[in-house]
Write a structure and sequence with these properties.
This protein is mainly α and about 220 residues long. It contains ten helices and two strands. It has two domains: about 70 residues, no CATH class; about 140 residues, no CATH class. A two-stranded parallel sheet has the order 1-2. The two termini are about 50 Å apart. Keywords: Membrane, Transmembrane, Transmembrane helix.
Length: about 220
């Protein structure tokens, strides 16, 4: 946010740099600099005004294009094209990791990376998925011990919060290591269902108390 009070302290010569072609200033700063100069008696010709407006519009277009590009990077490019590469869908991976933990989500995402011949990201994803389990088991009790317990509901529980962090990290892995704007077709959900059922069974029996900090375990209490 550009404030007029900051620019008004500048000299006319410094403000003139804001309205010159090739400057590195944001559109809002250029507009404010032009207003201040006019208030100080600077008379712009119609040609100069048109040129400055052209500079401003160009910069705004560049900013908009950059924003759209960033949105495209985070967009899920799933398609029905039968010729597209088949991967486990991002939505499915995130839902599974949210409710069943980072382990099944990381396994599915790692299989995607292997399919894309990205073995190092696949290994990193698997390592994260299994390491996040003890991290979650540490964070959840820590949050309970250091916050007001009356605040929590099933939607705002530490279990759900930490699980959400795990899902978001997997999303970052997807965006970082998957080729940009790669169209893909959703792979069969059979393997994700099998993995989910196995993990769900382990969560239900809370094997070796590994899953005590999981959202589903706390919800069942």
């Amino acid at each position: 946010m550009v404030k007029k009070s900051a620019l008004i302290k500048l000299s006319d010569a410094e403000l003139e740099k804001y309205v010159k072609d090739g400057n590195r200033f944001v559109p809002e700063a250029i507009e404010i600099a032009m207003i201040i100069l006019e208030e100080r008696g600077r008379l712009f010709t119609e040609k100069e005004k048109a040129k400055i407006q052209q500079i401003i519009q160009h910069k705004k277009q560049v900013e908009e294009d950059k924003l759209n590009e960033e949105r495209e990077l985070w967009k899920d490019h799933i398609t029905e094209d039968p010729n597209a590469i088949r991967l486990y869908s991002r939505e499915l991976i995130l839902i599974i990791s949210l409710f069943l933990g980072s382990i099944p989500g990381s396994i599915l995402l790692a299989l995607n990376f292997i399919k894309l011949k990205k073995n190092i990201p696949a290994a990193l994803t698997l390592i994260f998925g299994f390491i996040f389990l003890p991290i979650q088991n540490f964070l959840v009790p820590f949050i309970y011990e250091n916050t007001n317990k009356n605040f929590f509901t099933y939607k705002y529980s530490p279990e759900f919060f930490v699980s959400s962090i795990g899902s978001l990290i997997l999303l970052v892995f997807w965006v970082t290591f998957t080729p940009k704007k790669l169209p893909y077709k959703a792979k069969s959900p059979i393997l994700p269902i099998i993995i989910s059922l196995i993990i769900l069974y382990l969560i239900i029996i809370n094997y070796q108390n590994w899953f005590s900090s999981y959202f589903l375990v706390s919800f069942a209490k």
